[in-house]
DNA sequence: ATAGGGTTAG
């Protein structure tokens, strides 16, 4: 999943058993509906729970709604079992709001009801709300069990809320819930997505059992952190543990190779996958190969690779090439690729922004204006850049040129001080990316107020000396911020971990783990 | 008898 999820504001902090009279109920939904109409008079609350479980696993909202109506007629919707099953069904059918409404009116809520509604929010990527529900549940005195832990750890992973995740991890350790495989996996996932790959690895090693998901998580975790060697080692460790190498693990290894431009290794794994392991490569793998070739500067080969590997209709693969055209300043190919993408997906915001940035880099201001007009005509708007940082039990959110934060004066002052300090050791604002925010006016100070710079300044004020600063961002970090953050890591002697839309940048002593290519 | 949980490219 791309790390695009954002946060909203300052908060925080079945199956069917074929026994008895249920036999044969699940032949098909149509048959079910008919049968329901015939037999519904005889249903008790257990029947409802079983049928709703079926609707949930089949994501059959049509049937689910009908069962709901019948349950209302019989006044069974307030039964804690039926109610929880309804919450779960609506959650799984992507109707978090309905799930929450049913949950709200339940007179008796147990840990299952709470877990089901939290899960419904996770499904919708409303991780902040899910986490808040967990806190509410604790206030009500309902004790979490292993199911709850794995769900709420997932919310933390989605928010990259390391502090909450850590606290929950400590509880899971104390209560022993961490021994359950899904909880262990959720912990590995949470640490990895929150920027603490070392802790993810620690948990992974201490897990009493591992399954293919544990292995996939650790391989892709290393990959996201740009630790290609470790990803490959984990992959081979996986093989030696007699775990079948999976489709997903290969995605991890290939993306690790792509990040470091290890062309030979990448092709070696692609061949191994097809010829020795018998896993059929999919779009994900081919896209990794495209970015691998791009990373090595072999753009024309990358283009040929897309055309000859059945992914010529895959926007992600083309966009990977487009980004690379911008990085390598190959504007002719870039234009061709942008046209290609817009033919496939005329409203693709990212493509317009990249195109405009390419024009800006080439000082083609006429082109920039043209793209802006085109965007307006097409009615596409750039997604605003948002960065956030967790300090204490609160998440603080910054938008580019945000002046909404109550401590904005102090933050600006700190930032100006930092900019002066890094200018003294060679920082020159990089105007290429002034138009990163294409909707905005072309003012110099835009660079200075990119959301990640604000978040770092805030982090420096509010975290203990020498502590690592963890920042999350919904878009990819821009060139100028990347340079600035590297220099800030020198003058402040701080480690800065920033997770952007696609990967982690671990910045320390003036160097970044991405090797300045992303 | 009956309800709830984990992984995938950019």
From TrEMBL:
Residues 426-518 form the DYW domain. InterPro entries: DYW_dom (IPR032867), E_motif (IPR046848), PPR_At4g14850-like_plant (IPR046960), PPR_rpt (IPR002885), TPR-like_helical_dom_sf (IPR011990). One of its GO terms (biological process) is RNA modification. Signal peptide: none annotated. The keyword Repeat applies. GO terms for molecular function: RNA binding; zinc ion binding. Keywords: Repeat, Transit peptide. PPR repeats lie at residues 110-144, 211-245, 348-382. It holds the Pfam family DYW_deaminase. This is DYW domain-containing protein. It comes from Eleusine coracana subsp. coracana. The lineage of its organism: Eukaryota, Viridiplantae, Streptophyta, Embryophyta, Tracheophyta. The gene is ga06024.
């Amino acid at each position: 999943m791309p790390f695009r999820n954002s946060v909203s504001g300052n908060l925080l902090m079945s199956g069917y058993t074929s026994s008895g009279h249920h036999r044969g109920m699940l032949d098909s939904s149509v048959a079910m509906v008919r049968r329901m109409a015939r037999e519904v008079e005889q249903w008790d609350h257990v029947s409802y729970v079983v049928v709703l479980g079926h609707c949930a696993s089949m994501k059959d909202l049509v049937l689910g709604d009908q069962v709901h109506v019948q349950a209302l007629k019989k006044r069974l919707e307030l039964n804690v079992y039926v109610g929880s099953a309804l919450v779960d069904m609506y959650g799984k059918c992507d109707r978090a709001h309905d799930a929450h409404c049913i949950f709200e009116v339940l007179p008796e809520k147990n840990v299952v009801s709470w877990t089901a509604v939290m899960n419904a929010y996770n499904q919708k990527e409303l991780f902040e709300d899910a986490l808040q529900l967990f806190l509410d549940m604790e206030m009500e005195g309902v004790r979490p069990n292993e199911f709850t832990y794995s769900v709420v750890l997932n919310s933390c992973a989605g928010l990259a809320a390391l502090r909450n995740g850590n606290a929950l991890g400590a509880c899971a350790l104390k209560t022993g819930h961490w021994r359950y495989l899904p909880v262990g996996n959720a912990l590995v996932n949470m640490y990895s997505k929150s920027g603490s790959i070392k802790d993810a690895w620690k948990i992974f090693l201490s897990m009493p059992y591992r399954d293919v998901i544990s292995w996939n998580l650790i391989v892709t975790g290393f990959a996201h952190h740009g630790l290609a060697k470790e990803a490959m080692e984990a992959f081979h460790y996986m093989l030696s543990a007699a775990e079948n190498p999976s489709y997903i693990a290969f995605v991890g290894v290939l993306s690790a190779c792509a990040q470091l431009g290890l062309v030979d290794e990448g092709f070696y794994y692609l061949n191994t996958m097809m010829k020795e392991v018998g896993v059929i490569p999919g779009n994900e793998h081919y896209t990794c190969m495209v970015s691998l070739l791009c990373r090595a500067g072999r753009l024309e080969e990358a283009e040929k690779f897309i055309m000859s590997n059945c992914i010529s209709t895959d926007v992600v693969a083309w966009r990977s090439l487009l980004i690379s055209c911008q990085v390598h300043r190959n504007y002719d190919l870039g234009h061709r690729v942008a046209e290609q993408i817009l033919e496939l997906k005329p409203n693709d915001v990212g493509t317009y922004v990249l195109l405009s940035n390419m024009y800006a880099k080439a000082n083609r201001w006429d082109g920039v204006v043209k793209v802006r007009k085109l965007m307006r005509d097409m009615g596409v708007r750039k997604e605003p850049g948002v960065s956030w940082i967790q300090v204490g039990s609160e998440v603080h959110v910054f938008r580019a040129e945000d002046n909404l934060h109550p401590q904005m004066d102090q933050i600006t002052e700190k930032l100006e001080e930092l900019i002066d300090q890094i200018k003294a050791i060679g920082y020159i604002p990089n105007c290429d990316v002034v138009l990163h925010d294409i909707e905005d006016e072309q003012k110099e100070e835009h660079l200075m107020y990119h959301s990640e710079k604000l978040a770092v300044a805030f982090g420096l004020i509010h975290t203990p000396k020498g502590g690592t600063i963890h920042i999350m961002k919904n878009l990819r970090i821009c060139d100028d911020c990347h340079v600035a953050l590297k220099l800030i890591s020198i003058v402040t002697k701080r480690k800065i971990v920033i997770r952007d839309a696609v990967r982690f940048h671990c910045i320390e002593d003036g160097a970044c783990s991405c090797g300045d290519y992303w």
